[in-house]
Amino acid sequence: MQPLFYDDHLLVFDKPSGLLSVPGLGPANADNLATRVQELYPGARNVHRLDRDTSGVIVMARSADVHRELSRQFEHREVEKQYIAIVHGKVEDEEGTIDLPLAKDFDRPPRHRVDHEHGKQAVTDWRVLERAEDRTRLLITPRTGRSHQIRVHLRQIAHPILGDNLYACEDSRAMANRLQLHALLLTLTHPITEKRITWQADCPF
Questions:
Q1: Considering its fold, how many domains does the chain have in total?
Q2: Which of 23, 16, 11 is nearest to 70 (CA)?
Q3: Are 52 and 96 in the same domain?
Q4: How far apart are CA 55 and CA 34, in angstroms?
Q5: What is the pTM of this model?
Q6: Which of 90, 119, 164, 178 has a CB 3.0–4.6 Å from the CB of 103, allowing a cystine?
Q7: What does 47-102 look like in DSSP terms, one character per residue?
Q8: Which contacts (CB < 8 Å, 24+ apart) does range 159-162 have?
Q9: Would you list the DSSP string of 10-58?
């Protein structure tokens, strides 16, 4: 795979939809970004993940020290992320914030759910980019990085992401041939140069 950016410390890729970030269970889930990258760049390691069906910008570290520093930035919410999502229905407001705690749904793995008693804080900002009669294009800025956060939050406000085979209804799933969620931008501080850097992967839908 050709990186969007690389140096002696970092690798940045535009992950395609349908490719796991790391190996999954069983031979059917063996193909993944990490394994492909490690064949070309031995020692590369994941810092964060994107869902299999989400495309877009993902960063990997090329050493243990860089991995440690990037992980710290993610943990302390020093990394800025933006996504594009196309959701079912016409979103009326121009922008908003979804603040709903999330936890694993142990009855329906690998799903997650809103859980006000045991869930961890999850906050997602959104802004309308474009409307059509049956769908809306949103710019999503998650403040936290919980698993399936954007997908669950948008479903909770009755605007599931098109093509989402975990959280959308059958009609919403049928409106797209893939999950309409793309990691558009990623901004972080380079662990060596200490410069703030932004990478972008053009949205394919």
A1: 2
A2: 11
A3: no
A4: 15
A5: 0.95
A6: 119
A7: SS---TT-EEEEEEESSHHHHHHHHHHHHTT--EEEEEEEEES---SSEEEEE--E
A8: 159/87, 159/88, 159/89, 159/91, 160/87, 160/88, 161/85, 161/86, 161/87, 161/88, 162/86, 162/87, 162/88, 162/135
A9: EEEEEEPTT-BSS--SSGGG--BHHHHHHHHSTT-EESS---TT-EEEE
Burial classification of residue 144, based on how many CB atoms lie within 10 Å of its CB (0-12 exposed, 13-18 middle, 19 or more buried): middle
Residue 157, classed as helix, strand or coil, is: coil
Find tokens 């964060």 and name the residue.
48
pLDDT tens digits for range 23-55: 888 777 789 999 999 999 999 999 999 999 999
169 falls within a domain = yes
**Cα–Cα distance for residue pair 129/94, rounded to 1 Å:** 8
Instruction: Point out the residues that are catalytic.
Output: 51
Q: CA–CA distance from 185 to each of 80, 84, 102, 144 (Å)?
A: 8, 9, 24, 15
Q: Coil, strand, or helix at residue 109?
A: coil
Judge whether 186 lies within some domain: no
Helix then strand count (H, E) for the chain reads 4, 12
